[in-house]
Design brief:
eight-stranded parallel sheet; 8 strands; binds pyridoxal-5'-phosphate; TIM Barrel; 231 residues
Length: 231
C-alpha cells in the first residue's frame, strides 16, 4: 500500500481516538488535506483513497493542480493569506471556501466579485489566537465588530473560524490558542452575534490535531503527516 494511503489511515485513526477521548462523534471532525508543494499525482492518490477536502495556501497551486485533477471531485478551501489582487482567482479556480478572511477590504472585494457572479462563497474568519506578530488574522478583540460588518454581505456565508496555533512543538503550549478560538465562537453564539449553525472551528495540524479536537475542532488541516516533510 502506498505511504500516502497508509498515512491517511493513521490520521483517520488518530481522529477517531481523539474523538472517543473527547466524548465526540468521529464524524464531527472533517479532515482537510493541506496540499501545499504536493505534486498533483500525489494528491490524486489521496483523493482516490476517498478524501474530499483540499486546502491550498497559494492560489497558484490551484492553477497547477485543478487541470491535472479535473476528473476528480473534491472541495477546495483557501487557507493562506489572501492578497487583494488574487480575489478574482477565487472565482476563477472554483474555490468553495476561504478560511482566511481577515479584513474589511477583502469583504468588499469578494462581495463585489461574487455579486457579479450571482453566487455566494463560504468563509471562515481567521483569528490570530497566539498574538504572534508574524501571523495573519484578526486579534480576538476585533472579531465581534468584524462579524457585525460581515453580516451585511449576503454573498459571504459565514461558517465559523480558523486559527493557526502558536508555533511551538509542545502541543500543550499550543492548546491555549485553540481554547481561545472555541471560547470566542461560544461567546459569539451566546451573545447572538452569529447563528449556532456557524460553528466551524478549523484548527489543528499534523502534530497537534488531538489537542485541537479536545478543544472542539471541526476541521483539522493535515499536511506533512500524510504527504511527508516539505522542503
Ligand atoms: C501547511 C499548513 C497546515 C498543515 O501543516 P502540517 O504541519 O504539514 O500538517 C495547516 N494549516 C495551514 C494554514 C498550513 O499552511
Amino acid at each position: 500500500m502506498s505511504d500516502i494511503v497508509n498515512n491517511i489511515k493513521n490520521i483517520r485513526n488518530r481522529i477517531v481516538l481523539a474523538c472517543e477521548r473527547a466524548g465526540r462523534e468521529a464524524d464531527s471532525v472533517e479532515l482537510l488535506l493541506a496540499t501545499k508543494t504536493v505534486t498533483p499525482d500525489r494528491v490524486r492518490i489521496a483523493i482516490e483513497a476517498g478524501e474530499t477536502l483540499l486546502g491550498e495556501n497559494r492560489i497558484q497551486e490551484f492553477a497547477v493542480k485543478n487541470p491535472e485533477l479535473s476528473d476528480l471531485k473534491y472541495e477546495r478551501h483557501f487557507i493562506g493569506h489572501l492578497q487583494a489582487n488574487k480575489v478574482k482567482d477565487i472565482v476563477k479556480y472554483g474555490i468553495d471556501c476561504v478560511q482566511s478572511l481577515d479584513s474589511v477590504e477583502l469583504i468588499h472585494l469578494l462581495d463585489r466579485r461574487f455579486q457579479a457572479e450571482g453566487r455566494s462563497l463560504d468563509v471562515l474568519v481567521q483569528v490570530n489566537t497566539s498574538f504572534e506578530a508574524s501571523k495573519f488574522g484578526l486579534n480576538p478583540g476585533e472579531v465581534f465588530a468584524f462579524l457585525e460588518e460581515l453580516k451585511k454581505y449576503d454573498t459571504l456565508k459565514f461558517k465559523g473560524f480558523m486559527t493557526i496555533g502558536l508555533f511551538d512543538s509542545d502541543a500543550e503550549a499550543v492548546r491555549l490558542s485553540y481554547t481561545r478560538l472555541r471560547e470566542l465562537r461560544d461567546r459569539a453564539i451566546a451573545e447572538g452575534i452569529i447563528s449556532p449553525e456557524s460553528k466551524e472551528l478549523s484548527m489543528g495540524m499534523s502534530t497537534d490535531l488531538e489537542t485541537a479536537i479536545e478543544e472542539g475542532a471541526t476541521i483539522v488541516r493535515v499536511g506533512s503527516a500524510i504527504f511527508g516533510k516539505r522542503n
